[in-house]
Design goal:
It is built from 4 helices and 2 strands, in the order E-E-H-H-H-H. It has 99 residues and is mostly helical. It has one domain. Helix 3 runs antiparallel to helix 4. The longest helix is centred in the middle third of the chain and has 29 residues. The protein is elongated, with a radius of gyration of 19 Å.
């Protein structure tokens, strides 16, 4: 059964009827992210997100490298190990190559 987010009532800074997420899902600091990922559903959601990013962005980096006839080894390795860092390296290398 899917639970809907709670509607806040009388919480300072919130408008009446505005939906809020539970504290462990807000992601405002590392402790709340850790708490959210320690739950089975949170872990599954996080892991799915990481895998999807690695696969889809990694494939895009690889295909662009083939199309532009240049090496993407470092960018792909970083994409698989540290997601956004690999994408940033690839985009930086791509911008430098176009100058």
């Amino acid at each position: 059964m899917i639970q809907r987010p709670r509607v806040s009532r009388g919480v300072p800074g919130h408008q009446r009827g505005q939906r809020t997420l539970p504290q462990h899902c807000q992601g405002r600091d590392p402790a709340t992210v850790r708490a959210g990922l320690s739950r089975p559903k949170g872990f599954l959601a996080g892991w799915t997100h990481y895998i999807a990013f690695d696969l889809f962005v990694g494939r895009w980096v690889w295909e662009q490298g083939l199309a532009e006839r240049r090496s993407t080894r470092v960018a792909l390795l970083l994409t698989w190990l540290a997601g956004p860092a690999g994408l940033a390296v690839f985009l930086g290398q791509r911008a430098a190559a176009r100058r």
